[in-house]
Write a structure and sequence with these properties.
Layout (H helix, E strand, L loop, with lengths): L1 E2 L3 H4 L4 H21 L3 E3 L8 E3 L5 E3 L6 E3 L5 E3 L12 H6 L1 E3 H17 L15 H10 L17 H14 L10 H8 L26 H14 L6
Protein name: non-specific serine/threonine protein kinase
GO molecular function, one term: protein serine/threonine kinase activity
Keywords: ATP-binding, Disulfide bond, Glycoprotein, Kinase, Lectin, Nucleotide-binding, Receptor, Serine/threonine-protein kinase, Signal, Transferase
Amino acid sequence: MGTLQDRTLCMLLNWEKWFDIILGIALGLLYFHQDSTLKIIHRDLKTSNILLDEEMNPKISDFGLAKIFESKQVEASTNRVVGTYGYMSPEYALDGYFSEKSDVFSFGVMVLEIISGKRNTGFYQSDRTLSLLGHAWKLWKEDKVLELMDQTLSETCNTNEFSRCVNVGLLCVQEDPSDRPTMAIAVLLLNSDAATMPVPKEPAFVVKRDLSRTTSSSKAEASWKNELLATIREGR
């Protein structure tokens, strides 16, 4: 019937349906990573690859870049990085390494996009320096996560579930793959009513680009990484 990028369609959905969609995507990824006969790493998860059927159930599609892992295989690498800028994990975008944690990163980006109604690529806010991930991280640190909410959800939103989604999204986009949850843990956290949640560390790609003219080594490295990422083709 449509995809998650169909904003006209998506504006008709209430929070309950959006939460079901997020959970449905998480369960689909869990199946590919853990429950399928073959362990599948998608490598190109993005909102346009999530189809919605007539009942608005999500279906993960487009496995053209997917890789099959051996049962005990944890990671693989490639010299040819392909995928979609904005959804790729740092270890894959910069070094060509991919694993189930790369898909977890992409899932986290999608969660933050869904609940905010904004895309990570082309995200705009007043000082122009933060990515959507950085903006979400800033609001989380300031205990203002509800300000991230897509305004079309304001009347129907369950604020506890919303805050939980922000927390899970930020856990999934942490820079170090070992800090990210597995999809099994992500599903558990999404379904949890616990008062406390794991505390995320700073996400990858917090800053969109370095606007400062400083020549410090850290700034130079950030600039170099941004230039490298800019060479990655957006879309397929």
